[in-house]
Give the backbone structure.
Amino acid sequence: MDGSKILFKLVDVSFYYVSERLALNSISLEIKEGESIGILGPNGSGKSTLLKILDGLLFPQEGKVFFEGRELREKSFEDPNFNRYFRKKVVLLFQNVDAILFSPTVRDELAFGLLQLGYSDSEIERKIYECSRKFRIENLLKRSPFQLSEGEKKKVALASLLIIEPDIILLDEPTNELDPRSVRELLSYIKELRAAGKTIITATHDLQMVNGFFDRIFVMNEEKKILKVGDYKTIFSDKEFLKEVNLI
Ligand SMILES: Nc1ncnc2c1ncn2[C@@H]1O[C@H](COP(=O)(O)OP(=O)(O)OP(=O)(O)O)[C@@H](O)[C@H]1O
């Protein structure tokens, strides 16, 4: 990975939703192109908040966030060219997928991002066909996304994000709600994305995701700090540490 471009750089980032109650506590990190990063930590340690900062949905009260060397601020998104560039490149699968589903049908949900990007009708049809087969959601295309099971909603949400072929994929608890076969399919799909050189940043409690999926793991704690960074072997060989941070 050495020599790869730095995509994200956070310098002493602190964030609070309400004053005095920290949700992120002085976070500094760098993430390079093509890395697969796991974010582990107990409930409320700041994992989702960190993903929303990386997705340009929240902006820290303290510290700085850089994306491809450029400071990411609320104002950055007022530039339509940058907004388009960033939103094509970076996607976030929310923990609560209801937050990103809004179309009357699953087909419309899949078409939305492609329409925004100016794809032709025939390209949209082809992509919807391929993507819905890949995620096994062909039989749902005419349904309303709001009347699906939680697992079906998750697959539709993921498909609607990945159909635009983003380079940086932020996943918040992607295996929650999925049945065992869907988990296996998702994990194998994530492996394909990795092999294709995508950058994938995943917050998870699912320990079956951890081994073999991540180049580096960031462990967060109840103080909303990143306590440790390392590969699977380094993090998971220290059982005392894992107990201390409530991971096992
Ligand atoms: N919308 C909000 N308003 C106020 N406080 C919030 C909000 N969202 C999260 N928090 C607080 O911010 C802190 C970090 O929450 P966050 O959701 O980032 O944690 P998490 O590690 O993703 O948790 P989990 O594993 O339960 O999903 C927690 O103390 C939480 O209570």
